[in-house]
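Check these lines:
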Amino acid sequence: MQKHKILIVEDDLVIAKNLQMMLKKMDYQVTQVLDSGEALLEVLQQEIPDLILLDINLAGALDGIDTAQQLKKTFDIPFIFLTALSDRPTLERAKITEPQAYLIKPVESEPLRNAIEIALYKSAKNNEATTKPAEAHQESFFMNNHFFVKAKNRLEKVHLEDVLWLEAKDIYCVIKTTKGQYVVSHTLKKLEKQFPSTSFMRVHRSYMVALDSIDAIEDNNLIIKEQYIPIGKTYKSDLIERLRII
């Protein structure tokens, strides 16, 4: 059975090391230990863990709560707050971000184990619950294999077979087709649920591609119509499995 991947964000080296040792004893895989929210958001462009242990009192421009707010906007990754602060104002700020748990330092092994197991269980149940509705929505969204997008003062029909890739641009998304491109006010995360997974695949934090449009793979890039699309290392093995390689 594959180990669950957990990423630690903690700027106290001693605490980070202790957490790492506890997780190893629990048979979890620690993917990385980072010391800032900025570093986390950068790493998540390439690697998506199953769970994040996130210290609230981080140095830098983003504290843990600010970082969690950014996570909620772009990613769907469960996280557990770690903090030495238990005051009411901090708790009020923290709960808005909907953490899976809120653990007070020093963190003991058994409460940590319980919080992680509950967080991973809830995450698995949520994913299971959304799978069937998402599949049904895909069918209705792409009735007759086309959809409409707003272009200036009119709606234009886009055939699914003409879509080459989608690129995230903050809260917007660029849909690149054989006939041009469109900017839509949806996140890539939302569009990923609407586009059929049989034909489209997320290959990077910022890109989803039409599998039939791939012309070649060179190092860690896809080539589509002479354009290079980066492949995130988290997605590469799944991509290789989907392609017909002889």
